[in-house]
Amino acid sequence: IIGKVNRRFAYYNPKLMKKLIKGQRLVNMFKGALERGEFTIYLQPQVNRDKKVVSAEVLARGITPDGTAISPAEFIPVLENSGQIVELDRFIWEEAARLLKKWMGTPLEPLTISVNVSPQDFEYMDVVNTFISFADTYGIDRKKLKIEITESSILSRRVKESRVIDRLVDAGFQLEIDDFGKGYSSLNTLKDINARTLKLDMAFLQMTEKDKKRGEVIIESVIQMGKRLGMHIVAEGVETVKERDYLIHLGCDYLQGYLFSWPIPVPGFVEKFGWQFGL
Ligand code: C2E
Ligand code: CA
Ligand code: CA
Ligand code: CA
């Protein structure tokens, strides 16, 4: 009897159970949440070497009934597990296209916008045609849409075999390798990738005092390598003036991070940076 009980209870891991229940609750909540407007986009600026805003990254946020924003760290992994990330990303990308359309013919027209793509998107939807159809529906300039794909996605068999990257580039979209350096085969990615921009993972800036020197060696090498390959380099996670000056000194083309702005709602973004465009 004891054996039986033990075996049964071997499956009961309270921590895992709690996680599953929480996950299931989120999955159920997601149904309809999109329609109820419980997800929205925030924008975080990317600045050039002259500190001028040239682009914005679109970041998903969940909004609770009391108006609190929920970080994607809370829901993206859950939605990736359930496959629902596809629906969220379609929604976010359409919002991005809508925004570009809204800015057309206004002083904000020069801004480009970048969006994120989850590895699951490549499994469960036609990413290339989804982007093409949003760009066409809203009549936007495809060059204005920058598609951030993580290095690990790029290395997946699915992405390689379907030549998604080449097809996106051929269709006229800009491509950014996100979280560069976080994966295991960085050099291999660069060997044959058709992307013009490389986004250096912020982990190297966030090294502890003890490992700082190592982080810097990696940052310097990646920037040098990217530049020699003719790529643009974006540094993300720039939090201090010191980090900014260091990265500019190394030749980074674009910077993004809390130093310039947190991700904020679209109206706040326009209010905060519109003056740079004469608004
Ligand atoms: P990511 O694509 O690497 O986005 C950058 C993250 O770093 C954002 O977190 C941003 O708020 C944060 N960040 C920006 N500046 C700084 C800084 O100076 N210091 C630090 N420590 N962090 C900074 P967020 O918005 O919480 O998003 C987290 C991740 O969730 C994103 O990482 C991305 O992988 C994913 N994500 C966000 N929105 C979407 C989306 O619409 N679709 C998909 N598939 N993934 C998304
Ligand atoms: Ca990103
Ligand atoms: Ca990133
Ligand atoms: Ca830092």
TrEMBL record:
<protein>
    <submittedName>
        <fullName>Diguanylate cyclase (GGDEF) domain-containing protein</fullName>
    </submittedName>
</protein>
<dbReference type="GO" id="GO:0071111">
    <property type="term" value="F:cyclic-guanylate-specific phosphodiesterase activity"/>
</dbReference>
<feature type="domain" description="EAL">
    <location>
        <begin position="23"/>
        <end position="277"/>
    </location>
</feature>
